[in-house]
Amino acid sequence: MTNHSTRFYDYHVWANKIIFNRLKQLPQHVYKQEIQSVFSSVSKVMAHIYRVDCCWLDILMGKSMNEAMQASIQMEADAEAKSLEELETMYDDLSMRFKACINEHEDLEKEVVLDNPYAGILNTRYSEFIIQVANHGTYHRGNLSAMLRQLGHSSVMTEYGLFMYQDEANPSITTVPAN
């Protein structure tokens, strides 16, 4: 039986791909254009999602949250400096590593203690880390949609419901109508 958290991760990868496809349709300057918003550019949002995904992968693989956060600090600046196409390649590689880790994990429902340096101790499960990755990405893809509208461009639908419909009915959906 497939763990629901793995399906949420598949959704996260799909939604990121939809966003990358949309961003590649826009004028190239939009990606790094400065804006007064939640993030100061689209590239900063995308780099932030990437950094946090990397951080959670490290935690899933056994690093402490503090170690994972420290290891990812420079990663965000490096990712933000990349072109859209370069960052997409980095995301593709990360998603393959993340999926391999999920598939090879001994027990995603195993209870684990998470020591968050800002929030404290939390008794949780590995599967919750994966759900957090998808939820975090969804939150910031929402920021990104608002930012694109602010810049005069439409975004695209990346809702979980659309992902559910594409899964078996039409697995080739990689673009969706603008919203």
Strand content: 5-15%
- What is the tally of beta strands? 2
Question: Structural class given helices, strands, pairing?
Answer: mainly alpha
Q: What would the average pLDDT be, to the nearest integer?
A: 91
Shape: globular
**Regions with little confidence, pLDDT below 50 for 5+ residues:** none
> Strand order within the widest sheet?
1-2
Q: Helix fraction?
A: 55-70%
Q: Give the topology string: H per helix, E per strand.
A: HHHHEEHH
* Biggest beta sheet summary: 2 strands, antiparallel
Rg over alpha carbons: 16 Å
The DSSP helix count reads: 6
Distance between the termini: 34 Å
Salient structural properties:
179 residues; two-stranded antiparallel sheet; 7% strand
Concise account of the structure shown:
With 179 residues, the protein is mostly helical.
